Amino acid sequence: MLTKRIIPCLDIKDGRTVKGVNFVNLRDAGDPVELAKQYALKGADELVFLDISATLEGRKTMIDMVLKVAEHVNIPFTVGGGISSIADVDVLLKSGADKVSINSSAVKRPELVNELANKFGSQCVVVAIDAKQIDGEWIVHLAGGSIPTELNLFDWAKEVESRGAGEILFTSMNNDGTKAGFANEALAKLSETLNIPIIASGGAGTVQHFVDTFKDGKSDAALAASVFHFGEIAIQDLKEALRENYIEVRL
Amino acid sequence: MKLVIIDYGAGNIKSIQFAFKRLGYDAVLSNNPEEIKAADKVIFPGVGEASSAMKMLKASGLDTLIPTLKQPVLGICLGMQLMCKSSEEGNTEGLGIFDVAVKRFDNSVKVPQMGWNTIANLKSDLFKDVKNEAFMYSVHSFYAENCKESIATTTYSIDFASALQHNNFYGVQFHPEKSSTEGEQILKNFIEL
């Protein structure tokens, strides 16, 4: 049976992990390759690297990092952040990334989704959507959630699916950073309306939150950062708990 | 050991090359027929859309070369699908090495199948020291039907052939190069065939 995926997310700036990673038994917690290897060993199903470099130099360093991760890590990984063209994607895939994640660039120019799906296949095109619930309506936001758009989450998700997205990574701005659980109602609605996998993001704080997002949120995968980076939840323990709750996982 | 990965412009071949490197082997990327013919083992990768990948194969004449190869050949993902008789994706005629049709998953499940699923009914030296129900990583919307050439099956909406063998030709739907240590074991087994 296809299992539910657990995905640690690493923020990368100028080739180093940022936002704090406090991992036991790690020589250099800032080195994304070391961290990725540890996560692969500990049972992560996939990894996401989010490039938050603001400079061209930082982007170049990112490519080197992707090559090194592909060389040393034996599980799939997605790269996101600042991707806006076929050329951007081409170099990342050629360097060994399995998938790319696009966000603002898709909102600015939706045809990009079609172009990437046609050129590289839907399987490697993840569309990340950040949305905030305002007066009952889920509104898509840009630039890490700071700029509201006119788009409704569900309409936009449906549109990118029809344009060839292979997967949706939905981050609820209301839940992100709260450690109070994922936005399961919206996630379930996405999962029921769309026929591509949905990754839940934003709000992970406890093992129960993961149980809930797979059961109530009907999510196909769950992404989190700090609970993994600071050892608050060990992936092995999490997966054992999921299995006890009759959720299929790779153990 | 001369290991060649066929490079015809379709897919993520760097990951396959790196996976062999982790096992201690240098795999060469090539689209040169002489070099491919002279290899001890050949990897036929592929990611993307079937009809355009087949066009790229034809453009380089590799479509006629591959079925004549005598050494062990391993098709991965779309590579495996192109070795089949036909694919529903873009109504593509395949290389016909495996006598089986490739179909699209119906919409009772999410398409693509993306993630880790188990392989069972293992029937080949390719799976030496790999346990039944081992987890493998796959990303695909199309599948080869279960058939007499199946050497592994996986269940996703239906039971399908997640690996095939015909004489010296092998194919796997999943990505052994991305499937942790058990995936690497399969690549090691292929080298040791």
TrEMBL record, chain A:
Main localization category: cytoplasm
Amino-acid biosynthesis among keywords: yes
Catalytic activity from the UniProt record: 5-[(5-phospho-1-deoxy-D-ribulos-1-ylimino)methylamino]-1-(5-phospho-beta-D-ribosyl)imidazole-4-carboxamide + L-glutamine = D-erythro-1-(imidazol-4-yl)glycerol 3-phosphate + 5-amino-1-(5-phospho-beta-D-ribosyl)imidazole-4-carboxamide + L-glutamate + H(+)
Pathway membership, UniProt: Amino-acid biosynthesis; L-histidine biosynthesis; L-histidine from 5-phospho-alpha-D-ribose 1-diphosphate: step 5/9
Annotated catalytic residues: 11, 130
Pfam families reported in the protein's UniProt record: His_biosynth
Top-level enzyme category: lyase
UniProt KW Lyase keyword: yes
The protein's Enzyme Commission number: 4.3.2.10
GO cellular component: cytoplasm
Alphabetized Gene3D superfamilies for the sequence: Aldolase class I
GO MF annotation: an example: imidazoleglycerol-phosphate synthase activity
SUPFAM superfamilies membership: Ribulose-phoshate binding barrel
Compartment list: Cytoplasm
Record keywords, A-Z: Amino-acid biosynthesis, Cytoplasm, Histidine biosynthesis, Lyase
A GO biological-process term: L-histidine biosynthetic process
Role this protein plays: IGPS catalyzes the conversion of PRFAR and glutamine to IGP, AICAR and glutamate. The HisF subunit catalyzes the cyclization activity that produces IGP and AICAR from PRFAR using the ammonia provided by the HisH subunit.
Protein family per UniProt: Belongs to the HisA/HisF family.
Subunit structure of this chain's protein: Heterodimer of HisH and HisF.
Full protein name: Imidazole glycerol phosphate synthase subunit HisF
Taxonomic source organism: Olleya namhaensis
Automatic annotation (TrEMBL), chain B:
Compartments reported by the entry: Cytoplasm
SUPFAM superfamilies listed in its UniProt record: Class I glutamine amidotransferase-like
Pathway(s) served: Amino-acid biosynthesis; L-histidine biosynthesis; L-histidine from 5-phospho-alpha-D-ribose 1-diphosphate: step 5/9
One Gene Ontology term of the molecular function aspect: glutaminase activity
Signal peptide per UniProt: none
E.C. number(s) listed in UniProt: 4.3.2.10, 3.5.1.2
Catalytic activity: 5-[(5-phospho-1-deoxy-D-ribulos-1-ylimino)methylamino]-1-(5-phospho-beta-D-ribosyl)imidazole-4-carboxamide + L-glutamine = D-erythro-1-(imidazol-4-yl)glycerol 3-phosphate + 5-amino-1-(5-phospho-beta-D-ribosyl)imidazole-4-carboxamide + L-glutamate + H(+); L-glutamine + H2O = L-glutamate + NH4(+)
Catalytic-site annotation from UniProt: 77, 175, 177
One GO CC term, this protein: cytoplasm
Quaternary context: Heterodimer of HisH and HisF.
Superkingdom of origin: Bacteria
One biological process term in Gene Ontology: L-histidine biosynthetic process
Pfam family, one: GATase
Keywords: Amino-acid biosynthesis, Cytoplasm, Glutamine amidotransferase, Histidine biosynthesis, Hydrolase, Lyase, Transferase
Ranges for domain Glutamine amidotransferase: 4-191
Originating species: Olleya namhaensis
Membrane spanning stretches: none
Protein name: Imidazole glycerol phosphate synthase subunit HisH
Task of the protein: IGPS catalyzes the conversion of PRFAR and glutamine to IGP, AICAR and glutamate. The HisH subunit catalyzes the hydrolysis of glutamine to glutamate and ammonia as part of the synthesis of IGP and AICAR. The resulting ammonia molecule is channeled to the active site of HisF.
Family annotation (InterPro entries): Class_I_gatase-like (IPR029062), GATASE (IPR017926), Imidazole-glycPsynth_HisH (IPR010139)
